[in-house]
């Protein structure tokens, strides 16, 4: 798994590539935590390079969303989600908890 | 049969073995992903629950293809795991109010047609998961 970050004026962009599993999900959680600890709660997660995500990774997304939504207009928006990953989100009923958009440009434009 | 140390860093290698075997068995990309997810969740559970921590044993993984099915056998030497102890996941409450965890066995049962846990001789658990090549509709 690799994570890259970019801070925009109105939101933070996080791009994750590879596998998010029990081994790697704590690193993704740390990235979200660093952003919210810094007082920023508008995050775009670009999933275009995400190949696999297990339940451990899905809970990292839920926890980040929970943290962001505590703050006014705070939110994690998911961009470019592969059908298979969307299928996992759907199976466990996580879809309504996230806005999912086509790509990072659309996601960044939401903020 | 391939043996891996029971650590989270082994997950990618175990999944790679299973992904290749499932592809050779003729499953499509989406089906291979569902099988991979079941195996990843199963192995994470073995490390967390059968062994209770990383680095306390091994996971042996074997893939067996027949004309109409594909089986994955995962064997550990941890404590015997009883799936009956695991509560059904909460799929109904608002997501932000759900208790974290509990989705591993759910994903295993969704991705595979049969999931059997049996105690090994001596110690540990043998987990057999079977996916039919022509899946019955759930």
**Rg of chain B to the nearest angstrom?**
15 Å
Which structural class best describes the helix and strand composition of chain B?
A: alpha+beta
Structural class of chain A: alpha/beta
CATH superfamily (homologous) name of chain A: STAS domain
Assembly state (oligomeric): heterodimer
Rg of chain A is 12 Å
How are strands sequenced across the largest beta sheet of chain A?
1-2-3-4-5
Note the total helix count of chain B.
3
Main sheet overview of chain B: 5 strands, antiparallel
Most extensive contact? A-B, 25 and 29 residues
The gross shape of chain A turns out to be globular
Can you tell me the CATH class of chain A?
Answer: Alpha Beta
General shape of chain B? globular
Strand order of the largest sheet of chain B: 1-2-3-5-4
Number of domains of chain A: 1
Beta-strand proportion of chain A:
25-35%
Number of strands of chain B: 5
Could you name the key traits of this structure?
heterodimer; A: 111 residues; Transcription Regulator spoIIAA; 5-stranded mixed sheet; 4 helices; B: 138 residues; Heat Shock Protein 90; 3 helices
Protein model, in words:
The complex is a heterodimer of chains A (111) and B (138). Chain A is an alpha/beta fold. Chain A has a single domain (2-109), classed as 2-Layer Sandwich (Transcription Regulator spoIIAA), CATH 3.30.750. Chain A is 39% helix and 32% strand. Chain A has four helices and five strands. Chain A has a five-stranded mixed sheet with strand order 1-2-3-4-5. In chain A, helix 2 links the parallel strand 3 and strand 4 (75-79). The radius of gyration of chain A is 12 Å and the shape is globular. The model of chain A has no long low-confidence stretch (mean pLDDT 97). With 138 residues, chain B is α+β, with helices and mostly antiparallel strands. Chain B has one domain (2-132): Histidine kinase-like ATPase, C-terminal domain (Heat Shock Protein 90, 2-Layer Sandwich), CATH 3.30.565. Helix content of chain B is 33%, strand content 25%. Chain B contains three helices and five strands, in the order βααββαββ. Chain B has a five-stranded antiparallel sheet with strand order 1-2-3-5-4, covered by helices on one side. In chain B, a hairpin with a 5-residue loop joins strand 4 (114-119) and strand 5. In chain B, helix 1 (11-24) packs antiparallel against helix 2 and helix 2 runs antiparallel to helix 3. The mean pLDDT of chain B is 93. Classes of the chains: A alpha/beta (111), B alpha+beta (138).
